[in-house]
Specification:
Layout: H1 16-22, H2 32-39, H3 82-89, E1 110-113, H4 128-137, E2 142-145, E3 150-155, H5 159-169, E4 177-179, H6 183-189, H7 194-200, E5 207-211, E6 228-232, H8 237-246, E7 250-254, H9 266-272, E8 279-283, E9 295-298, E10 309-313, E11 321-335, E12 345-354, H10 364-381, E13 387-391, H11 397-406, E14 412-416, H12 418-430, E15 436-446, E16 452-460, E17 465-471, E18 474-475, H13 486-498, H14 512-524, E19 530-531, H15 534-544, H16 556-565, E20 579-580, E21 585-587, H17 589-600, H18 605-631, E22 635-639, H19 646-658, E23 662-664, H20 676-687
Helix pairs in contact: 4-8, 12-20, 13-14, 13-15, 15-16, 16-18, 17-18, 18-19
The structure holds zinc ion (ZN) (2 copies) and fe (iii) ion (FE).
């Protein structure tokens, strides 16, 4: 914990009651009434791409200042016609006080930009939306200005076009989302449970991750080697019309360059996307705040009392997200989140306001996006921070951003340990104010000792924590050189834990030189940062069982191991041995050598994956019992990106219940670093009293 200078306590803000009314709402997907009008040839809004009403339409993405009325939004550019004005003025009508009301006569318009050759033969079509759909059908990639930024769209059943999109975007295998017109259509490609249907039809119209039917005509390269598909229903009338005109699944992916914020501006899109998109659907409603698509999935193993919806990314329709806390922040707080899956959180009184997904703060552009998001959200919510919370990682750009923001004016700074913040985010969701045993399994977070933590058991309260157990430290030889090379992590782990690197078929094709270097570096202790990361352990296992020896994107290997486990009866797999020392070190040598033995003996790798999940659950339940014995605490909170793994979540929850623990899990904010800023803010709330 680092605490520095004090701040001026007299920052003016609006009184509570007033602010509650003024809080900016998230965008709402097109309501059934507006959709019916848009599709009705008799209606004056027939095929109008911006149809909306008081119940639906853009909110957060178009607002410039509070209070929310037309003059404060980008709709101010459009002079409302008498007919639309009459709707807005009539308390009996659905558009009473609808600030974004408009029609094809007075409201925003779209414009299709394409070459005459591309448009050949399409002049007779009804409008530009129909022509854009025809271009997609012809195999073109079309950039579309969506509700919160540009998307890239193409025919999801055309593998050749999808391959071209991947090549142009330099995105070899990260899954692409798919949009379809109706639930029935989605159901033809992915079985949709009642809970999943509810999720897809939520007013936020998120991407839901669903299993793909083997017979689906969606091209395999939309989500290579992945049994799941990210699917959404159209969020706006423009998208509804496109999806219906195209009448087949459409790839719908954020139009950004790798890891950079999604593009919102017409000119910038035409410039930056010139090499990717063949055509553009532009419009003249300016996007004030950038939002990506939200991503959720259903926890098929959730208990009957528990919401089955798990957020993976909160953005369009889900942000800003207001979380009421039973604790009062005496000072206004900004928490800057982490560098991956960045979000920020503002807090005052009993309200926490979580921002949309900002992105990967490894890029400078994302820092600009962060700053813009902070300034807009601070202005809209009238929360002017006096205390700034950040991760302890000195290398994080967000940490530097926090220091920068704290200089002007004089703010308090609170450094919060990564995994402590994870657990407190979970406690905040549940309003839980007693100490818990926190199990945090994630990729990486900066530890108190400077090592990369990520397989942690903490005894934690809102204000402090003690690390009581963790996965043993193992070497990441070459540091960043291992980033996309699970096979290399596996070699390093084997050499460190077993003293040698046994020959394994799945790893035979990788260079022997590299294998020697890994062993040498470990023996000499050169360039081998140590980690207790659970994510890296998943990487190693993914390589050992041959399901994902090389990756191109985050959590790819962990997903592959989960999917492998799901192919067999998970209950049938017995856990591997492991050792838990008296001082809380979980030793992995026995586990790794058992996995090696199974793989050498020709055991089904899917069974090995299932057994590994069981083993992880057993390890951490054992550590939780050890902590309970010492402290008497009977409640366990689960957080960290690895708990997006539903097999692990289920096994861990079940095993903890069986041992008599109460278990708290995430339901409102992501278990990954997207939820981190909420936890940081609450820790800072507990320490704000130190700034008197
Ligand atoms: Zn509506
Ligand atoms: Zn009008
Ligand atoms: Fe994390």
């Amino acid at each position: 914990m680092t605490i520095s200078s004090d701040s001026d306590p007299d920052v003016a803000y609006r009184p509570r009651a007033e602010r509650d009314v003024l809080f900016p709402a998230p965008d709402v997907a097109t309501c059934p009434d507006c959709l019916a009008e848009t599709l009705n040839p008799q209606d004056r809004r027939f095929r109008y791409p911006f149809t909306n009403c008081a119940n639906c339409g853009p909110r957060y993405t178009i607002i410039r200042e509070m209070p929310y009325d037309r003059a404060a939004t980008s709709m101010r550019e459009f002079r409302i016609c008498p007919e639309c004005q009459a709707e807005v003025d009539d308390p009996a009508r659905r558009r009473y006080r609808a600030q974004a009301n408009g029609c094809s006569f007075c409201g925003p318009q779209i414009e299709l930009i394409a070459t005459p050759e591309m448009l050949d033969g399409l002049a007779g079509l009804m409008d530009d939306v129909a022509r854009a759909a025809a271009l997609i059908k012809r195999g073109y990639i079309v950039a579309i200005k969506g509700p919160g930024g540009f998307h890239l769209a193409c025919d999801a059943t055309n593998a050749e076009t999808v391959a071209r999109l991947r090549e142009r975007k330099s995105r070899p295998d990260k899954p692409l989302a798919v949009m379809m017109a109706t639930l029935d259509e989605i159901n033809q490609h992915c079985p949709v449970s009642a809970q999943e249907a509810g999720l897809l039809q939520d007013p936020s119209a998120p991407i839901a991750l669903l299993y793909r039917r083997p017979e689906s005509k969606i091209a395999a390269n939309v989500a290579p080697n992945n049994p799941m598909l990210g699917v959404m229903l159209p969020p706006t009338p423009l998208y509804h019309l496109l999806a219906r005109d195209l009448n087949r699944p459409m790839v719908m992916t954020s139009a950004n360059l790798t890891d950079l914020p999604v593009i919102v501006d017409n000119d910038l899109a035409q410039d930056k996307l010139a090499g990717i998109a063949d055509a553009f659907v532009l419009h003249n409603l300016s996007i004030e705040t950038r939002v990506d698509d939200s991503v959720w999935w259903i926890d098929h193993f959730a208990g009957p009392d528990d919401s089955a919806r798990l957020p993976l990314r909160l953005s369009r329709g889900d942000a800003p997200r207001l979380i009421r806390l039973p604790w009062r922040a005496e000072k206004a707080i900004l928490a800057v989140g982490a560098d991956m899956n960045n979000t920020l959180c503002l807090m005052r009184d009993n309200d926490a306001v979580l921002s949309q997904h900002v992105g990967e703060a490894s890029a400078l552009e994302t820092l600009d996006a962060f700053r813009a998001t902070f300034e807009r959200l601070s202005q809209l919510s009238a929360i002017v921070p006096q205390v700034i919370a950040h991760d302890l990682n000195p290398g994080y750009r967000t940490t530097r951003m926090a220091r920068l923001l704290a200089e002007d004016p004089d703010h308090g700074l609170v450094g919060v340990q990564h995994h402590h913040a994870h657990i407190v985010a979970c406690l905040a969701e549940h309003g839980h104010d007693a100490s818990v045993i926190g199990i945090v399994l994630d990729g990486t977070g900066y530890g108190d000792d400077g090592a990369a933590w990520g397989g942690e058991v903490l005894v934690a309260s809102l204000s402090s924590f003690e690390r009581v157990a963790h996965l043993e430290y193992l070497p990441l030889t070459g540091g960043d050189a291992t980033l996309h090379k699970p096979y290399r992590i596996a070699w390093g782990y084997l050499h460190a834990a077993l003293g040698n690197i046994p020959d394994l078929k799945p790893l035979a094709r990788f260079p022997a030189d590299e294998r020697r270097i890994v062993a040498q570096q470990i023996d000499r202790g050169q360039n081998t940062p140590m980690t207790s990361s659970c994510g890296r352990l998943f990487d190693a296992v993914a390589a050992l069982i041959g399901v994902c020896p090389v990756t191109t994107h985050e959590s790819q290997a962990a997903v592959a191991v989960e999917q492998a486990a799901r192919r067999v009866d998970i209950e049938a797999a017995n856990p591997y041995p492991f050792a838990l020392t008296d001082d809380g070190i979980i030793r992995l040598g026995d586990t790794l050598s058992a996995i090696v033995k199974d793989m050498t003996g020709g055991r089904n790798p899917h069974l090995v994956a299932a057994a590994f999940h069981h083993t992880l659950a057993m390890m951490f339940v054992a550590a939780a019992k050890q902590a309970r014995q010492r402290t008497g605490i009977k409640t366990v909170a689960l957080s960290g990106g690895c708990f997006q793994n539903r097999v692990l979540l289920r096994l861990m929850r079940q095993a903890l219940h069986d041992e008599g623990f109460e278990v708290l899990t995430h339901r409102q904010v992501p278990a990954n670093d997207g939820g981190l800023s909420l936890g940081q803010a609450v820790v800072a709330l507990r320490h704000a009293a130190d700034f008197v």
